[in-house]
Here is the input.
Amino acid sequence: MYANDCFALMGSMGWMGWLMPLSVMLLLGLGIAALVKYLFTSRRSREDRS
Here is the structure.
């Protein structure tokens, strides 16, 4: 039920209604990918030093 209301609101806003959620999901995905990459590279560099 919530998804139907959300899609109706997005449809009524035009292209901005679709662009904003997609851009938020893209930025969130990039942030998670950067965090995962940072965690794995920092772990490897610590192992190399010791």
Q: What stands out?
A: Residues 1-49 form one domain. Helices lie at 2-12, 15-49. The mean pLDDT is 84.
